[in-house]
Amino acid sequence: MANGDRTVLQFSTQSTANFSAEVHPLVIFNICDCYVRRPDQAERVIGTLLGSVLSDGTVDIRNSYAVPHTESADQVALDIEYHHNLLVSHQKVNPKEVIVGWYSTGLGVTGRSALIHDFYSREVPNPVHLTVDTGFRNGEGTIKAYVSVNLALGDRQLASQFQEIPLNLRMVEAELLGFDILKTTSVDKLPTDLEGMEVTMQRLLALIDDIYKYVDDVVEGRVAADNSIGRFISDTVAALPKLSPPAFDKLVNDSLQDQLLLLYLSSITRTQLALAEKLNTAAQIL
Amino acid sequence: MAASSTARSFLQVAATEEVVSPLRVVQIEGLVILKIIKHCKEFSPALVTGQLLGLDVGSVLEVTNCFPFPIREEDEEIEADGANYQLEMMRCLREVNVDNNTVGWYQSTILGSYQTVELIETFMNYQENIRRCVCIIYDPSRSNQGVLALKALKLSDSFMELYRANSFTGEKLREKNLSWVDIFEEIPIKVSNSALISAFMTELESDTSVTQCDYDRLQLSSNPYMERNMEFLIECMDDLSMEQQKFQFYYRSLSRQQAQQQAWLQKRRSENMARKAAGEEPLPEEDPTNPIFKPIPEPSRLESFLITNQIANYCNQINGVAGQSFNRLYLMKSLHDN
Hints:
Distance between the termini of chain B: 93 Å
Mean pLDDT of chain B: 74
Number of helices of chain A: 8
Strand content of chain A: 15-25%
Strand content of chain B: 5-15%
Largest sheet of chain B: 8 strands, mixed
Distance between the termini of chain A: 119 Å
Pfam family, one (chain B): JAB
Radius of gyration of chain A: 29 Å
Strand order of the largest sheet of chain B: 7-6-5-4-2-3-1-8
CATH class of the largest domain in chain B: Alpha Beta
Region (Disordered) (chain B): 265-295
Helix content of chain A: 40-55%
Number of strands of chain B: 8
Low-confidence stretches of chain B: none
Number of helices of chain B: 11
Keywords (chain B): Cytoplasm, Initiation factor, Protein biosynthesis
Number of strands of chain A: 12
Helix content of chain B: 55-70%
Mean pLDDT of chain A: 75
Shape of chain A: extended
Family (chain B): Belongs to the eIF-3 subunit H family.
Structural class of chain B: alpha/beta
Largest interface: A-B, 85 and 96 residues
Largest sheet of chain A: 9 strands, mixed
CATH topology of the largest domain in chain B: Cytidine Deaminase, domain 2
GO molecular function, one term (chain B): metallopeptidase activity
Order of helices and strands of chain B: HEHEEHEHEHEHHEEHHHH
Oligomer: heterodimer
Order of helices and strands of chain A: EEHEEEEHEHEEEEHHEHHH
Low-confidence stretches of chain A: 12-16
Structural class of chain A: alpha/beta
CATH superfamily of the largest domain in chain B: Cytidine Deaminase, domain 2
């Protein structure tokens, strides 16, 4: 009955409702590289995250750099001047990238991280803290992002808490490169256009085979039919433009002829070049 | 006697130069490639440059890190600023144990039109200080086609000697047997990654077997790209024909000058005969003050070589894209038949 006397601990979740972060693959590469090159006595690496805040509240993390620091049992010393120098240098190249947070390697958040987070919140209103577990302690490399949330008891500020926010890994650029190049420790040569084309076509063939098998299975009753997949398949097949065979053939042949024409032109140009070179250097002055 | 012989052998040892093994492979880290791609893409279509850092080991040039250069405004004061920026970046990177040696630079290009005199001059500048440097060219416009257009270039040694002597006459070139293919040497690229990165990437790889790269490659419309390529090609052919005309003019004027010289010589000889008959001193058979004896300078072939290189590049690109388009067209045809 004495409800009026109770004060409730509020976790203000509204501010973090639409807060999420997007990480570009370059940041992960940078962090791993700095971790591999860290000085012997340091057990973890700390650095600054650069990026921008998009209009819908997502934080886009695009670049990062390491900041030398020293840690003892309860103290952390960060090289602030270095941090500012590198920030200025980076901004000369790309003035749109600003500080959006900081990162550290290692799983979980420690007490010392709160101190560092405090420092960064003086630079940026709401910094994002990214942890990258390079030790693979959970059997996988976990990457998590946190923001600091204030715990208020009624009107009084109690403490801040690290709350996890959803993290989105944008791997598009890594995909462009091709994961084959990035996965292994060494690749002997970069694939040429035609080899890449071959790989793509093989993947396409594999996909088509999968779909074929699936449809066969459903028809024979081995696999339960799923309506949504069926609809997807029919949509895809319907996406092929409906042209009558002669019209389609004409289209394909026209494009083929254009390409052949260009090939012919380029061969002619090369012959011309060979001739010109001979004329230029072989001419003798009598 | 023994002392002097050992002294001589010591001198001999000191005098032998160390043999520089030729550069065979450039080993780049995945990190560097990602950085280059990001920088070039952000600023495309403007052209950007940056510095490469790494190690020079035997016949392999390892590139382990890089940093971009800010876009230079057209202002003379920024020269000092640019040097300061470079020093600052190198110093800061040194503190986090990144390799501090410059091994070259990278630049972005549009459709492969990078063979200019500025490139050669930058090469020569770098070569003064560093024994081996390499230039990496990245083409962001070709990456839209799903191809990683990354090339490592180096000037060939014979070309560098000629350039230093600043002589590009026909004779010298024939002596060295140098043609336009010998200016730039392309070096194969190897990619290496640290084990930590490969572990991460293996895990973060998306589960679908089809990636954005594949979508780009299977795109049917390559027309705008081909059109731009042809435009550049046509412009280059115009430049080449202008250079050819310069040569023709030179040869014509040279032969005309020779004819004039012969005529003058004949006249002198007949005059001398007349003088001898009259008992006077014969005049000299040469006259350096006469303008028809002035040697005409031969135009340098450097420009025409560079243009030829560019045209060859465009042709190669056209061939590559046409090959891809053939694949796609036949694929589409068979899909439709089914």
